[in-house]
Records
---
Amino acid sequence: MILHHIQTSASHDNALRMCLRYITAGDSLILTADAVNALLYPDWLNLIAPFAVYVLKDEIRARGLEPKLASISNIQINVIDDTEFVNQSLRHTKVITW
Amino acid sequence: MVSSAFEFMFEFNGHAIETDKQGYLKNVEDWQQEMAPILAATENIELTDSHWEVIHFVRNFYLEYKTSPAIRVLVKAIGQSMGPDKGNSKYLYTLFPVGPAKQATKIAGLPKPAKCL
Amino acid sequence: MKKISIVFRHSPYGTTKTREGIDFALLSASFEQQVSLIFCDEAVLHLLPNQQAELAGSKDYVSVFKAFELYEIETILACKQSLDTLGIKQQELAIDVQIAEAEAISESLVHADEVLVF
């Protein structure tokens, strides 16, 4: 069970795409920094839907994306703080930062 | 006249040859065979044919792979090309007592291997 | 001895990522870690022969690929999908690698103790 950490915008960088190529069932995703913007694209949402998805609360608030997130209904997005990020890192067998 | 533009250098045939703080040549292409005895002297080594064989080997290794071999890789590579009598650390340490990779690369005008911090 | 998987995903010479990753791989291998390398996305372009990195203003960190065996780096995977997308065939590659389906790469990520992406 791997926690895949994506930090870059899917429009500028292939990190999310490559991660999704090799991710396996039971793995999780955490989106930080510009990577959170992926949540605004229905195509990306469909691709990440099979996995547990985490985002950092401050990253969402910084970008004023809370209302946008609230309107996402087809998948569950877990909004967490730094402490919970650490907890999740420990709960998974390893973290891969793409 | 030799300029003293470089922080670390030595003089060779009237030219200033730049080195790093530890005496490794800054530019691989500055090296000439005649420089080897001078570099060896800074390591208290008097060059024999056996030394030369290793020096040429590391120099060729660098030219082919563009990196200085650390000791383990040097031992293995020498073993593959010259056989187990020479491809062992005991033999190489006899020639270069402080450290074969460290000293042979210096005398061959190469950068210090990454592992030798 | 740790199993370290190093993933390369960036094109040659546009960034210094792969160079940093290769330095890390060689150093880890010198410290007797069990290193495997995975080339995916445009990083597979590093595997083409006859590169002249200096012409692109980069240090040549590709010539050392021929010495992976001396460093005891034996597992080198190249992503089949990435090669197919770029129209590259195994016989065009400069070094011996295993062409790996996505599942095989996933598996090697699962089995590694540490995975670093460059």
---
Amino acid sequence: MSSSSATYILEMNNVTKRFPGVIALQNVSLKVKPGTVHALMGENGAGKSTLMKCLFGIYSMDEGQILLNGNEVVFENSKQALENGVSMVHQELNQVRQRSVMDNLWLGRYPKKGIFIDEKKMYDSTLEIFKTLDINIDPRRKVSTLSVSEMQMVEIAKAVSYQSKVIVMDEPTSSLTEKEVEHLFNIIERLKKENISIIYISHKMEEILKISDEVTIMRDGQYITTKSAKELTTDEIIRLMVGRDLSQRFPSKTNKPGDVILKVTNLTAETQPSFSNVSFELRKGEILGIAGLVGSKRTELLESLFGLRSIQSGTIELHGRVIENNSPQEAIKNGFALVTEERRTTGIYPDLSVGFNSIIANLRQYRTKGLFVSDRKASNDTKWVIDAMKVKTPSQKTPIRSLSGGNQQKVVIGRWLLTKPEILLLDEPTRGIDVGAKFEIYQLINELAKEGKGIIMVSSEMPELLGVTDRILVMSNGRAAGIVDTATTSQEEIMRLSALY
Amino acid sequence: MVRDTKNATVMKWFVDNVIYVVLLLLVAGIVVISPDFLSVTNLINILSQSSSRIIIALGVAGILITAGTDLSAGRMVGLAAVVSASLLQATDYAYKMYPNLPELPLFIPILIAMIVTGLLGALNGVIVSKFHVPPFIATLGMMIGVYGITSIYFDRPPYGAQPIGGLNQSFTTFAQRGIPVGQYEIPYLIIYAIVVSIIIWVIWNKTELGKNMYAIGGNPEAAKVSGVNVTKNLIIIYTIAGLLYGFSGTLEAGRVGSATNNTGNMYELDAIAACVVGGVSLSGGIGTVSGVIAGVLIFQIINYGLAFLGVSPYIQFIVKGLIIIVAVAFDMRKHAKKK
């Protein structure tokens, strides 16, 4: 074995990729040691995914070289990469949901007896791989019945079944509960023992510092540095990623909470298990955070306030008057707006323009005489959304799909502001958005509160809640475990409350 | 509490098997009104009328499972019927399309008809998978075009547009007779349908092609990154459908005893309706052979049973329309979750 193959399992050297008018990657290098977790970090647009697309042959490099175990390789597609031991666990899991776990695992290379498929061998081999990874899923279960975390495990098992040497994980924990994250980390430890390397792409600093051995940081298509995770701190990583000292991750708070506008008393969801007996108040110009573990029914609570889910008992009072938000239409009429958690599935119309995405919740306002929509009014409002939210877009006609996550989110928030809401419900407003854009969203939330809107914000990121909100309602297993003042609380207190029930 | 879960299980079973329940209820309803309906003769009639439709529906179903559709099925059946009939006219028949054609062994015309529709099916597959024309449009074009081809073949000198009849003995026996069992005769048609169903069942469930078919319909992207050759698999599935239409077309010609350019008209819609009622998902990835067969039988029982009761054929249409909508509405409940 040559010395180079002993040092690095995968080397990407001086990769350059140009698109018409832009240099997407300039002399980027990534060197992964065998049996290690190598975090790849950078803001959205830093070039992480472009680099991975070069690795998997989705883009061809203009310059540079990829060495796998010391030998130069050029993959033409992800299938080829897979067969050579380089695989990817996608952020959006690519599975055939209508089919069984083992059908998915062996898709494209079913074991056969003659012309027929050898079901028994498929079943046994699946169990064998699951056993080595400590995964407990029946290979015959339909994928559609699996949780996100289980689907991810199946993807990892698939990578292992291809004898992968390098597995790329793109935001693997974005929809996992803490317990599931722990299981994932256990699996990663097992993979390391098998001498498999992980390229770990994530925005979550705490996680990266916990799981990774080395960290490579990119910024604006350029390679910044590779360091051992032990030498790094969250602040240091952020500084390297954004190239400026972001000791201020949150804007200073300037909003002043006023009188109570919304009073929720003993709210209980109709379909249980869900939340029950939740009470809280929201003031004018206040930002109320909702903390809790995944599964503590925070989203359900927001959706019920917005009329998407039915309520069994309890009251919602707006300015002292009891209201019933039985449907989103009613909620909107009462001055509520909801920015949903799953931006891609329930937030945006990906193929339609920024303009369409801006005005769609407010169409009634653009009616001229009769039934027609006034293009001029709609266009003015779109312009307002783009300007006020500082949306970076080439034009109103650009499909929203081609904007970054942060800019998409700004359009969605802008869309709801057009309806002149009094109460803005935000569900994980910064999920999947890079650090710089997060700051802008925080600023926006603060500004809105300053203008007197009441804001309820669900978030799984503790620092975010502590940095942005005035008070925090902590949910635990469907119940309100307590309401704390952000200025005087601590992460420890919130964690304790989250685990109360 | 125990009772609740038991009820829930019963309810779930009911929702999951709604088509079979509908099938039973239909039969039960007809039998209550007219007990005579329960007879071996009626059963044999219904099954033999369903046979060629099951074969068509299985072809269409495979395509539906890939998240495609095939509007050209009926017209292909017509083309195969006309081609096979023209090659199987009795030598002493006065209006032969090919007066000098000797009596061919049965399998040659059937094979020719199947090759013709098989090739057209493959063409559908190429248009859909290589040129990325949406299946609805591709097969709509094929449907219209094939009707033209069939009509040109059918309506020409010396005899012009008249039904191609006078089929020879071996052909009519092949499609109209059966195996005697006691006082009854089990039509060959039923046997053909059973054999085709078994072959298709094996392909769908036991071969790589079948699993790929479900994968392509369920998530084409996943199939592609797993190394499935989507183009090739799609072409094969459309080709198999074409072959099935060809076979079914010859059976139709033999069963009726003649063929015209309108044979098979609208069969594709019947087939799609039967598939959908039988639980095949139009969005792809879901469908079973037994479901498709049940779907076809439901429609055939409506046709036959209501006619047996003397119900106006116009009312039969209304019932059929309702069944399609109600069955699918129930089916959607499987997927819809109450919030």
---
Amino acid sequence: MSPPFLPDDVVREILLRLPWHDDPSCLVRATLVCKHWRGLVTDPGFLRRVRPPVFGVFLNNPPADAHFVPAAGCVQQPCISSLLRPAPSRGWFVRDSRRGLVLLSNRARFLVWDPATDDQVAVPKPPALCDCFFHGLLADALLRRPTTTDDDDERSSSSSFRVAVALIEDGVAAAAVYSSDTGAWATARPAPAAGLRFLWMEKPGAVVGEAAHWLLSGCRVLKLQHAGGGDQHQQDEAPALSVLEPGNAPAVDDDNVQLMRTHDGALGLIAMTGLALRRWTLATTAREGGMSWWTPCDNSTIRFDESILGPRRGHRRYPGRFRDEKLSLASALALLDCREAPAWGRIVGVDEDGATVFLWRMYSIFMLRLQPTPTTPRVSKICDGYFVLKPRWKAVYPYSCFFLGGNIVT
Amino acid sequence: MAAPESGDGNNGAARMVTLISSDNTRFEVEAAAASLSQTLQLTILDGGGGGGDGIPLPNVDSATLSKVLEYCIKHAPAAANGGAPNATAVDRAELERFDNEFVNIDQSVLYSLIMAAHNLEIEGLQSLVAKKVADMIKGKSPMEIRRTLGFPDPTPEEQAEMNAHMLEYGWAYE
């Protein structure tokens, strides 16, 4: 029995067990083995079982244009040329990146951009909220319209999207949602809450289901629920704004915390304190009258203890350049003097699945892959001191995709 | 002792079934072990394979079948415990060690196993052999993958097509 005659099911199971999460190029190589394999790998049904890994991050570095920084192990190549010039012109900032789309904004409007096709859709700012943007009170999330569950055209279909914006003025929140289907903004029903404050202006919110979330002070959450599921009601129902007030507030450093979607699709919180990353998920208990609590996740704490760190030394100097080079956790940590700061690094980004975390430290950006084993993340440095992320701009926007069989899969 | 489910009133734990390989060798195994195969499970639940009848397996030769049954007998107790929630770490480590040893075999045997696992629908074994093949080809170039898996040499047409793709996606080789 010769392997080219292995049943397709068997070949698929083999390909799914390749380490594509760490090395996306292994699937690309599989497409080159033979025509038949190429067909199997680029089949939408197969690709749905493969989560595209983080390909790199966008970041704003004013006054320069927005950058794209490829993740370690991802070499630059022709397909990606559009990624290298994300900003159509000066004055555009990346605001968010989800499901292969990127949201940019300038003073006058938004731009939704698909790097895979280089399609750009301009979105005017919502008229009612327009004035406030100049105060910088803007937080936006991008929602790609969830497609029906088992349709084969899920991946190839629509670049239909929504843009959600929220702002807080005098402690009161306002929000609106733009839908590419209607081409119009819908203003949200306001939340009856005052005294609100965004924790982070620049960090993207988390999208869970049909709702966008932004972190407020005190680990509260501003939730913008888009008009609920039923398509026929979509036109009538306005988006609704609410404030989630969990019963507890984990002790976190306001500068070092971010909302995320956990891998099982719940709203989560990730924070760095000292040499540990901690994760919570927002859980609702019935007995407390529906009150929600920040509950530590399984394997909630990813601790960088001293046994990993090795013997403490004085101030170590960076070796020259090691861009695109995979570092072991030990060597990455040994480069840093952990005594000088309360947190090892600052959380600047989390990917859509909460599987990859980006930390900023000493002018460098580190990528931690928490999959497949959260407790022993794989650390790599993706960007090394070529520019300074200004405090106001300490956020990165992970972009996930595959390049397969001539197509970009997001 | 967790008794394996048995469709009839027989003495479940001790119930044996007979499997007959393509070269007419008869194997007698516990029903619980043979039931790891989704294909056999239904037949066994219907009371088949007992006594002198035996279940013929025309696609599996005796060498492969004995290997498959070795796997099934080892994994049957854990499977009977419903994924073994109460298995100790030692048990799991032992199974893992067994699995590693088990697939450390000649490539031709591996292919027979792949086909047998596929035909008999033994989920754990399918996953194990697929992982083994993935380990064999990971990090290799398309040409090396072809050689590793014993593909015939590409036809000039195929070669031209591969070259064209290489030009376009050469970056994937780092």
